[in-house]
């Protein structure tokens, strides 16, 4: 479904993504893991074409994403969240969700009319996330955890087939973590494909079909969670980064 072919991206001498190759299958959950600065977010930014790649190819089915503008990528059915939660705190939760129906990523200048259709969609998503009563609340009054859930909600508003999540559970408590795991598995069972960047190894090992490990811009391993857990190179990349 998604295929990264020798993708390379550098910033003023820093090789953030260095000849990366991997493929993900439809209907699976894959985790992209690796130490801070490994290049994970940059790779997401290349997939969603926030940055052009210097060389290589990125395919979504037969489409070359690396040759496509960002808004077209959203329309193809690819949704993503950002590592830093981006919300408009003075608007209501429903309004924040509706903002994401129209043009996808980056198209936040105008609030689309809250039509019956997108209000129903927002309600359905809040129901799914277990926050059905929050629609009229100001975004700014929500807790950190509720905002993390809504991050996932905003991605779902465009009804994507491929969902890219940058640290969807970072900083959340254990109960919410279990809740997020449950939602992600439900989405997979509905036929969605998920690629997530995640530091929480419990979450990664519990829900991933495939784990892709990045270190210093390179993919150093890919495999089933049980294989990755005993991979010596992976262990070294983590231990090395903590020293
Ligand atoms: N816009 C940018 N300009 C310059 N350097 C960047 C930019 N984005 C990321 N980098 C650098 O690329 C490397 C990988 O960063 P990033 O993709 O954020 O890593 P990760 O998400 O794995 O923690 C880091 O060295 C980071 O400083
Ligand atoms: Mg990152």
How would you describe this structure in keywords?
243 residues; 9 helices; 24% strand; binds magnesium ion; alpha/beta; 6-stranded mixed sheet; 10 strands
How would you characterize the overall build of this protein?
- The protein is α/β, with parallel strands linked by helices.
- The protein has 2 domains: 2-77 and 160-242, Rossmann fold (3-Layer(aba) Sandwich), CATH 3.40.50; 89-157, no CATH class.
- Helix content is 36%, strand content 24%.
- It contains 9 helices and 10 strands.
- The protein has a 6-stranded mixed beta sheet, with helices on both faces. A 4-stranded antiparallel beta sheet has the order 2-1-4-5, covered by helices on one side.
- Helix 4 (116-129) packs across helix 5.
- The longest helix is centred in the last third of the chain and has 16 residues, at 174-189.
- The radius of gyration is 18 Å and the shape is globular.
- The site of magnesium ion (MG) has 3 residues, from helix 1.
Offer a concise description of the structure.
This protein has 243 residues and is α/β, with parallel strands linked by helices.
Uncertain stretches of 5 or more adjacent residues: none
Number of domains: 2
Q: What gap, in angstroms, lies between the N and C termini?
A: 37 Å
* SSE run: EEEHEEHEHHHEHEHEEHH
By CATH's scheme, which homologous superfamily of the largest domain applies?
Answer: P-loop containing nucleotide triphosphate hydrolases
Ligands bound here? adenosine-5'-diphosphate, magnesium ion
The major beta sheet can be summarized as:
6 strands, mixed
- Please state the structural category: alpha/beta
What would you say the CATH architecture of the largest domain is? 3-Layer(aba) Sandwich
Query: What is the helix content?
Result: 25-40%
């Amino acid at each position: 479904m998604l295929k990264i072919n020798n993708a390379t991206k550098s910033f003023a001498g820093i090789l953030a993504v260095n000849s990366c190759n991997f493929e993900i299958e439809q209907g699976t959950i894959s985790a992209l893991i690796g130490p801070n600065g490994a290049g994970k977010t940059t790779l997401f930014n290349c997939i969603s074409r926030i940055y052009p790649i210097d060389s290589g190819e990125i395919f979504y089915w037969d489409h070359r994403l690396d040759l496509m503008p960002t808004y077209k990528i959203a329309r193809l059915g690819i949704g993503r969240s950002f590592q830093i939660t981006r919300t408009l705190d003075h608007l209501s939760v429903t309004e924040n969700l509706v903002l994401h129906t129209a043009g996808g990523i980056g198209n936040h200048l105008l609030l689309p009319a809250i039509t019956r259709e997108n209000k129903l969609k927002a309600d359905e998503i809040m129901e799914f996330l277990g926050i059905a009563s929050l629609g009229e609340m100001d975004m700014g009054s929500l807790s950190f955890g509720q905002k993390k859930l809504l991050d996932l909600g905003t991605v779902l508003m465009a009804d994507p087939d491929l969902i890219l999540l940058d640290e969807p559970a970072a900083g959340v408590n254990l109960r919410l973590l279990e809740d997020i795991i449950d939602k992600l598995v439900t989405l997979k069972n509905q036929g969605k494909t998920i690629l997530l960047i995640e530091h929480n190894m419990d979450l990664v090992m519990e829900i991933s079909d495939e784990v892709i490990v990045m270190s210093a811009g390179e993919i150093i391993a890919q495999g089933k969670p049980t294989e990755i857990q005993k991979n010596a190179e992976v262990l070294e990349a983590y231990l090395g980064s903590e020293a």
